[in-house]
Design a protein that fits this description.
There is one protein chain. The protein has helices at 2-7, 43-52, 57-60, 91-112, 143-149, 152-173, 178-203, 215-219; strands at residues 22-27, 33-39, 71-76, 136-139. The protein is α+β, with helices and mostly antiparallel strands. It has one domain (2-231). The chain has a 4-stranded antiparallel β-sheet with strand order 2-1-3-4, sandwiched between helices. β1 and β2 form a beta hairpin. Residues 232-237 have low confidence and may be disordered. It comes from Micromonospora maris. This is Excinuclease ABC subunit C.
Length: 237
C-alpha cells in the first residue's frame, strides 16, 4: 500500500511523491497526527527512508514507531522542481516557502491532535503561517492489518516497548536533546491515554476526555523550541 500511495497521481497526472520539495505528515490508527517533516530531495525518497529501512534519526532513535503509522499526507511544492542545490538563485526562496509549509502543517497537526502535541524531536522553525498547498492523503494499511495491529492491547504493548527503547536511547547517548526528552513525555501521555481508554471500556465507562492530561503543563509550549525563544519563558521555565 505504500507503493500504491507513492505511485498515486494527482488531477494533473503527476505522482504526488515525485515532487522534489514538499512536506509530509504521518497519522496513527486513530487518525491522530504523530509526525510532520519536510524534504528537498523528493518526497518519495524521504518517506521511504522513514517507513522501510530506519535510515532516519526519527526512526533509528525510536522517536517514530513505524508500526503506528497508518496514514500519510503529502504536500508537494511543484513550483520548485528546477531548484536543485544551494547555488540555484531561487534556493533561498524555496527553502523559506518550505519552512512556512512545514510550520503551518505542524500547527495544523497540533490543532488536530487530541493531546495538542506530536512526536517531532525538533519543532520546525517558527515561520509565517500560510494557506497550505493541495495535499494528498493515503492509507498505508489494509483492513486486515488494522484489525490485527489495531487491537488496543497490542498497541499498548507496542507503545510501552517504544517508550522503553526511547528511554534506552536517551540513556545510551548520555547527553540528549531537550526535544528527545519532550518526545519521551508525549509518548508517555499517548500510552497513558490508550491504557485509560482500554480500562474504561473494560469497566463499561465512557472513554476519558483527552484534556484530562495537560501536555503543555508537562512539557511547556510545543509551538517553538525553548532555545529559539528564551524570552517567551518566565523565570520558572
Amino acid at each position: 500500500m505504500l507503493d500504491a500511495a507513492l505511485n498515486a497521481r494527482d488531477e494533473h497526472g503527476r505522482q504526488w511523491s515525485d515532487a522534489r520539495w514538499g512536506c509530509y505528515a504521518f497519522y496513527d490508527y486513530d487518525g491522530e497526527p504523530i509526525y510532520v517533516g519536510q524534504t528537498n530531495e523528493r518526497l518519495r525518497a524521504r518517506v521511504r527512508r522513514h517507513l522501510t529501512n530506519q535510515r532516519t534519526d526519527a526512526v533509528a532513535m525510536r522517536i517514530l514507531d513505524v508500526f503506528e503509522v497508518a496514514e500519510m499526507e503529502l504536500w508537494p511544492l511543484w513550483e520548485f522542481e528546477d531548484v536543485a542545490g544551494k547555488r540555484h538563485p531561487d534556493y533561498a526562496a524555496a527553502q523559506q516557502r518550505l519552512n512556512a509549509v512545514e510550520y503551518t502543517a505542524y500547527l495544523k497537526a497540533i490543532r488536530e491532535s487530541r493531546f495538542k502535541a506530536i512526536l517531532n524531536e525538533k519543532i520546525p522553525p517558527v515561520s509565517p503561517t500560510i494557506d497550505l498547498p493541495t495535499s494528498g492523503r493515503f492509507s498505508l494499511i489494509s483492513d486486515a492489518t488494522r484489525r490485527e495491529r489495531g487491537h488496543p492491547d497490542i498497541r499498548i504493548a507496542r507503545r510501552a516497548e517504544t517508550i522503553s527503547r526511547l528511554a534506552a536511547v536517551a540513556h545510551e547517548r548520555g547527553e540528549v536533546s531537550d526535544g528527545l526528552r519532550r518526545v519521551l513525555v508525549i509518548q508517555g501521555v499517548r500510552l497513558a491515554y490508550i491504557a485509560a481508554v482500554r480500562l474504561a471500556y473494560a469497566e463499561g465507562r465512557p472513554p476519558p476526555d483527552p484534556s484530562a492530561i495537560d501536555v503543555t503543563g508537562l512539557v511547556g509550549s510545543v509551538l517553538f523550541e525553548h532555545e529559539d525563544n528564551p524570552g517567551l519563558f518566565d523565570a520558572n521555565g
